[in-house]
Amino acid sequence: MGITIRRFTSRKPSPYPGVPASWHTSQSVAADLHRRMHRSIDRTRRTLVDARRCGTITDRYEVLCDDLADTAAALDTQLVTAADLPLGIRHKVLLGLRYQIAELERTGDRIGRTALEAAAPVIINVEESLRAINERLDLTIEARAEARRLGA
């Protein structure tokens, strides 16, 4: 009489069409790049939520984020294809995709940063403004001093 050990694993389908469900936890380079790319998009979407809470109208930024997600879907297709290539070629292709994913991350960060900057109040250059005020004040003081010297 032997003991049978059963492993219960979740067989949830991947929320990303065409991407293996196993990539959710896989340690492969392609799966890691996939997760990294989608974490970046999720981070951008959360930043847009923060910007919206600050009063920014985010419709245009959300369209950009949707375009970014479409680009990620295209990269996912390339990652799935690359994962099935022989090792030497796979490494070279994944390296090229890694650079594209890094660019996607930078673009996502830029979208989020721009949305947050739009939420910040527009502040004029305070130093320049104060300098102009002080110059006018100096001119007024000089004019009054000159008027006193002239006996006015």
Number of strands: 0
User: C-alpha Rg, in Å?
Assistant: 29 Å
What class would the helix/strand composition place it in?
Answer: mainly alpha
Q: Please, what is the average pLDDT?
A: 88
**What is the tally of helical segments?**
4
**Share of helix, binned:** over 70%
Query: Poorly predicted ranges (pLDDT <50, ≥5 residues)?
Result: 6-10
Which H/E pattern describes the elements? HHHH
How much of the sequence lies in strands comes to under 5%
Distance between the termini: 118 Å
* Major beta sheet summary: none
Shape: elongated
Give the tally of structural domains: 2
What is the fold's blueprint, element by element?
Elements (H helix, E strand, L loop, with lengths): L28 H25 L5 H25 L3 H33 L6 H24 L3
Helix pairs in contact: 1-2, 1-3, 2-3
Short description:
The chain has 152 residues and is mostly helical. It is built from four helices and no strands. It has helices at residues 29-53, 59-83, 87-119, 126-149.
Could you characterize the architecture of this molecule?
With 152 residues, the chain is an all-alpha fold. It folds into two domains: 22-121; 122-152. The chain has four helices and no strands. The chain has helices at 29-53, 59-83, 87-119, 126-149.
Q: Which key phrases capture this entry?
A:
152 residues, mainly alpha, 0% strand
